[in-house]
Design brief:
The chain is built from 4 helices and 6 strands, in the order H-E-E-E-E-H-H-E-E-H. It has 212 residues and is α+β, with helices and mostly antiparallel strands. Strands 1-2-3-4-6-5 form a 6-stranded antiparallel sheet.
Length: 212
């Protein structure tokens, strides 16, 4: 992750360093990306993808499609903003394809949101405030020359919240990575009986909606 430039508050520098040191599960790949410039005076952004790990030796399978992807953006405004709790705000996007049968479940949006709350209220207990978000389900069916394409359903979760303490921001990132892995159909670490995950996606994702 690129280090902040000159003039960045020392507290935010520490937070960025903690994010750089965070190590999610091996299937989740984090890549720095340019942060938004209009949402706050300071920001850092990461792009995430979930890719299967090949065998017991680790490493990612070649040419394997992503199971899920997303964005994690941390905003900092020393003066705070309306709707924030303090000076930090996390803005995220997570999305994954799923079996159409599961996508037809009317309770899926509530379940997906509960995965986020459980991830952030888990053992790391990072503490968050002022959460908001939207879960969107999109189904597509191809016809004519494209009729051979299988039906496709995608779930997309856009969420934002405010960390209660800057020292716990890395825990927020790791919790969100756990959510992304769960959306990809991977079991939690360690596996917990009775915890559901989305079936593995069947088709590659197309398009790249922006963070809201």
């Amino acid at each position: 992750m690129n280090e902040p430039g000159e003039g960045v508050p020392s507290g935010f520098r520490r937070v960025v360093a903690a994010l750089s040191a965070a190590r999610p599960r091996s299937e989740v790949q984090l890549t720095p990306m340019p942060p938004p410039k209009r949402l706050a005076p300071y920001a850092v952004a990461l792009e995430a993808s979930v890719v299967p790990v090949a065998g017991p030796g680790g490493g990612h399978e070649e040419d394997e499609e992503e199971l899920a992807d997303g964005r994690f953006v941390l905003l900092h405004d020393p003066d705070g903003q309306d709707g924030w709790f303090g000076t930090l705000r996390v803005v995220t996007l997570a999305r994954a394809s799923m079996d159409p049968e599961l996508g037809a479940d009317p309770l899926l949006p509530e379940v997906t949101w509960s995965w986020l709350t459980e991830a952030l209220d888990g053992s790391r207990g990072p503490g968050w405030a002022e959460p908001s978000g939207t879960v969107t389900l999109a189904a597509s069916q191809s016809f004519g020359a494209l009729a051979e394409r299988p039906p496709r359903t995608e779930v997309e979760l856009r969420a934002s919240w405010s960390p209660r303490e800057e020292e716990t921001v890395a825990g927020h990132l790791l919790g969100w990575c756990g959510l992304l892995a769960q959306c990809a159909g991977l079991p939690p670490e360690p596996a917990s009986p009775g915890v559901a995950a989305l079936p593995r996606r069947r088709t590659p994702r197309r398009g790249d909606p922006h963070l809201g």
